[in-house]
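Run log // design_07
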């Protein structure tokens, strides 16, 4: 399908994805509730910081950080790895291949279609964060907000493309979700999801700067909280989008290799 036709069809695919998320809203709610681990971290670290601040973080600062983390996680999440794993193993992918839209485009639209429901949950959390005093009011500078939105888009793309890359392992092994669980453990530890990265030892912080995990959570969170100056935001945005390009290229190569195997076995 040509690019122009794909672009025209994409909004319709997103609307279909939204309709499906509404139809299966109970499952969607359960899925969103699995992303509330920052609330557990908030309770833990706020209690510790009540006795003495940890670096720049007192109880109020931890409220701001973890509620912002929860918002970022909600609006950048994806589940394509489970879709790919199931549809490859069951052969349902064959039906997608008969359609004129590339399956990866369709998967992305379906995942984006759930964004309004996730944003609906994230919005009151953001308001609570501001009212609690742990978060400064959102920047009024349009350029700052634009950079933050670009960081959210980049974070979503890294999530989606990484899950796509891991999901294509199902072309070669019985289940790709086992490999994803290993990735998920590294993500939770090194992304800033469970605790701010600046609380790690310096050598770990240096390591996170060159891994994609930071740019999936900590970077957008630190941007909206004003922890980074403009040059740092621009530099890290460039690194984030470099990861997007690399993950995109790797995902396409893995998809093509998987398609050759899928076709060879009569998928």
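design_07 sequence
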């Amino acid at each position: 399908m040509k690019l122009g036709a794909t672009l025209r069809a994409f909004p319709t695919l997103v609307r279909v994805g939204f309709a499906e998320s509404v139809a299966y809203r109970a499952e969607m709610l359960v899925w969103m509730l699995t992303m509330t681990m920052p609330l557990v971290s908030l309770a833990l670290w706020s209690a510790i910081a009540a006795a003495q601040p940890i670096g720049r973080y007192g109880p109020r600062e931890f409220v701001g950080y973890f509620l912002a983390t929860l918002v970022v996680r909600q609006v950048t999440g994806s589940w394509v790895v489970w879709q790919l794993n199931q549809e490859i193993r069951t052969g349902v992918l064959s039906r997608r291949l008969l359609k004129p839209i590339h399956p990866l485009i369709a998967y992305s639209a379906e995942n984006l279609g759930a964004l309004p429901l996730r944003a609906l949950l994230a919005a009151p959390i953001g308001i609570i964060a501001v009212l609690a005093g742990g978060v400064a009011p959102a920047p009024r500078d349009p350029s700052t907000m634009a950079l933050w939105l670009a960081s959210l888009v980049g974070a979503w793309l890294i999530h989606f493309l990484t899950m796509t890359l891991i999901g294509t392992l199902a072309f070669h092994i019985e289940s790709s979700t086992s490999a994803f669980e290993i990735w998920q453990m590294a993500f939770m530890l090194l992304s800033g999801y469970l605790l701010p990265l600046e609380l790690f030892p310096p050598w770990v912080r240096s390591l996170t700067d060159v891994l994609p995990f930071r740019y999936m959570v900590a970077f957008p969170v630190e941007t909206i909280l004003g922890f980074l100056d403009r040059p740092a935001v621009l530099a890290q945005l460039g690194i984030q989008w470099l990861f997007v390009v690399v993950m995109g290229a790797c995902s396409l190569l893995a998809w093509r290799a998987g398609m050759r195997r899928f076709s060879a076995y009569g998928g």
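Residues 166 and 183 are 9 Å apart (CA to CA).
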